[in-house]
UniProtKB/TrEMBL annotation:
<dbReference type="InterPro" id="IPR004013">
    <property type="entry name" value="PHP_dom"/>
</dbReference>
<dbReference type="InterPro" id="IPR032165">
    <property type="entry name" value="DUF5001"/>
</dbReference>
<feature type="signal peptide">
    <location>
        <begin position="1"/>
        <end position="23"/>
    </location>
</feature>
<dbReference type="InterPro" id="IPR052018">
    <property type="entry name" value="PHP_domain"/>
</dbReference>
<feature type="domain" description="Polymerase/histidinol phosphatase N-terminal">
    <location>
        <begin position="42"/>
        <end position="119"/>
    </location>
</feature>
<keyword id="KW-0732">Signal</keyword>
<dbReference type="InterPro" id="IPR016195">
    <property type="entry name" value="Pol/histidinol_Pase-like"/>
</dbReference>
<dbReference type="InterPro" id="IPR003141">
    <property type="entry name" value="Pol/His_phosphatase_N"/>
</dbReference>
<dbReference type="Pfam" id="PF02811">
    <property type="entry name" value="PHP"/>
</dbReference>
<protein>
    <submittedName>
        <fullName>Histidinol-phosphatase</fullName>
    </submittedName>
</protein>
<dbReference type="Pfam" id="PF16392">
    <property type="entry name" value="DUF5001"/>
</dbReference>
Length: 367
């Protein structure tokens, strides 16, 4: 047992040394702000060795710093702690260890825990806690009650997880009970790289906050190919200010979008503004043939456009990909003496409801 403990300790020390050596290189993520709000990049579901994760808490802070995040919540399991024979501590210890590193790296660190129960109700995260240990109850309803007593923000994790829902993604009576009692404030629409359209639909219908998180257990680079330009799954929070209180207020008021792969998932009003604030028109050149539009994508976001119903005398792309941080030119031909018209398209990777991208129109004119 002593040898096993020594090996684990050496592994964790090595992780900390390696992480500290590279923590100073931060890769900023360019996503525009919205009017009156700052866009914060957040991950509210991560694990450390204090439950079933494989890294020390400070490593999670260093990862968040390097990847351009603004905030993280450490949400170790209450009921599942496979390393507890080697690491004996209270449920809030991972947060306490990470605090100093978070302050040093200007990462907003949120105290949380994962309530880990069979279906139903399944797994839930409670964040903005002040006492993790009070949630460690035998009866799951008592755990939720204790979280709510601390004015926690509570959300349902990975509702489509096949280990708990192997045949269909179902809303159970227990979820209605939690929802009606005010013990469910949001749902993970994306967990890791998995997107759950049913969760997206429930958020829209029931006015619940949409979240996207990594649920990371391994070192983050084991899951995401950052060298190939990939990013971790995250929740975009449109906050009044860059504070923990600002994040909580935004979550309560459902000002979020989910960024998973090339997809953005959220309400139409937020995704439309993100799209418009990412694109800057540099030049509009008019001629007898039509209109050539030159623009730049100022963000790290990709936009996938698909032509929708339009006047056949307004001729433009069938589909088009706007790459990040690139200059683009698009020619719109106006035929048969047509002097103006609408360029109608759908941004297929900006999902405003399951299976439906953001619909957009840009008006052009020869005049």
């Amino acid at each position: 047992m002593k040898q096993k403990t020594l090996i684990i300790g050496m592994m964790l020390l090595t992780q900390g040394i390696i992480s500290s050596a590279v923590a100073q290189v931060r890769q900023e993520i360019k996503i525009p702000d919205l009017k009156g709000y700052t866009t914060l990049k957040c991950d509210f579901h991560i694990h450390t060795v204090f439950s079933d994760g494989l890294v020390w808490p400070t490593v999670r802070v260093d990862e968040a710093y390097r990847e351009g995040l603004d905030a993280i919540a450490i949400t170790d399991h209450l009921e599942y702690r496979p390393h507890k024979g080697d690491i004996v501590a209270g449920h809030g210890r991972s947060y306490e260890i990470a605090e100093k590193a978070a302050d040093k790296n200007n990462i907003l660190l949120i105290r949380g825990s994962e309530i880990t129960r069979p279906m139903a109700p399944g797994h839930f995260n409670a964040i903005f806690l002040n006492n993790n240990d009070s949630l460690d109850k035998k009866e799951w309803r008592d755990s939720f009650k204790a979280a709510k007593a601390q004015r926690a923000f509570i959300f349902w994790n990975h509702p489509g997880w096949d280990a708990q829902q192997p045949d269909t993604t179902k809303w159970w009576p227990e979820h209605t009970e939690l929802y009606n009692a005010g013990y469910m404030n949001g749902i993970e629409v994306a967990n890791g790289t998995s997107y759950c359209p049913e969760a997206f639909r429930w958020c829209l219908e029931k006015k619940l906050t949409m979240l996207g998180n990594t649920d990371i257990h391994q070192p983050i680079q084991a899951e995401y190919e950052f060298a190939k330009g990939k990013h971790r799954t995250m929740t975009l929070v449109f906050a009044k200010n860059r504070t923990i209180e600002g994040i909580k207020e935004a979550l309560i008021n459902r000002r979020t979008a989910v960024y998973v792969g090339d997809n953005l998932i959220g309400e139409n009003k937020y995704l439309k503004e993100l799209f418009e604030n990412s694109i800057e028109i540099l030049d509009v050149e008019k001629s007898k043939r039509g209109v050539q539009i030159t623009f730049i994508n100022k963000s790290d976001l990709t936009f996938k456009l698909l032509k929708t119903e339009h006047n056949p005398d307004v001729v433009y792309f069938r589909d088009y990909v706007i790459e990040p941080n690139c200059r683009h030119s698009i020619m719109v031909k106006l035929q048969n003496d047509v002097e103006e018209g609408d360029v109608n398209f759908e941004v297929t990777n900006l999902l405003v409801e399951p299976g439906q991208g953001l619909k957009y129109t840009y008006h052009v004119s020869k005049r």
